[in-house]
Amino acid sequence: MSKALDRSADKASQHVLRQAEKDSVQLSWDRLEMMQPQCGFGDLGICCRNCRMGPCRIDPFGEGPQVGVCGANADTIVARNLLGHIAVGAAAHSDHGRDVAHTLALVGEGKAHDYGISDKAKLLEIANIYGISIDKKTDIEIAKEIAEKALSEFGQQHGELKFLSRAPKKRVEVWRKLGIMPRGIDREIVESLHRIHIGVDNDYKNIINHGLRCSLGDGWGGSMIATDLQDILFGSPEPIRGKVNLGVLKEDQVNIVVHGHEPTLSEMAVKACQDPKLLELAKKNGAKGINLAGMCCTANEILMRHGVHNAGNFLQQELAILTGSVEVMMVDVQCIMPALTVLAQRFHTEIITTSPKLKFPGVTHIEFKEDRAYEVAKSIIRRAVENYKKRDKSRVNIPKETMDLIAGFTAEQVKNILGGRFRGTYRPLNDAIISGRIRGIGGVVGCNNPKIKHDWAHIEMVKELIKNDVIVLQTGCSAIACAKEGLMTPEAALEFAGHGLREVCETVGIPPVLHMGSCVDNSRILIAAAEVVKEGGLGEDISDLPAAGAAPEWMSQKAISIGMYFVASGVYTVFGGAQPVLGSKNVTDYICNELEDVVGGRFEFEEDPIKAAHLMIGHINKKREALKLKPMMHAIASN
Ligand code: SF4
Ligand code: MSK
Question: Are 387 and 350 in contact (CB under 8 A)?
Answer without folding.
Answer: yes
